[in-house]
Amino acid sequence: MKSIRGDRSRAVKLHRQMWLDMMLDLGDDASPEKRIRYKRDWCRRNFPDEDIAHNCFLCECAGKLYTSSQNCIYCPINWSPLVAYKGGLHRCYVSYVGGGREGQIFLDAPISEILELPERETGWKN
Q1: Predicted structure pTM score
Q2: Longest Cα pair distance anywhere in the chain, in angstroms?
Q3: What does the pLDDT profile of the chain (126 residues) look like in tens digits?
Q4: Per-domain residue ranges for the chain?
Q5: Which residue among 2, 40, 45, 96 is buried most deeply as judged by most CB within 10 Å?
């Protein structure tokens, strides 16, 4: 999905739409397995000819490679309000402040909290 690379507003809009649909379809506390499957299926259904990095429009926007997380600093969402260890990395795959069994915000946090996360300031970096 080359057209979304660097398109922050489109990435955030699609991110929020996918997570809102997930919450409406699966509830606020969907299991990690259901979230992963839902993201994959949602992307396939809505973008059948696209290969979206990690089935995540934010990763795709930031240019995150499958083998590297170095571009997470360009994620357009500010994950810091949900990060368990303040001063740590503010990324979706670090431990959620409310705990959880997977140790990753996008798998453990209530979906409503993910939807409430603000965008990062224009600089995009931590």
Answers
A1: 0.88
A2: 39
A3: 556 666 889 999 999 999 999 999 999 999 999 999 999 999 999 999 998 989 999 988 888 665 566 678 888 999 999 999 877 677 898 899 999 988 899 999 999 999 999 998 865 544
A4: 2-116
A5: 96
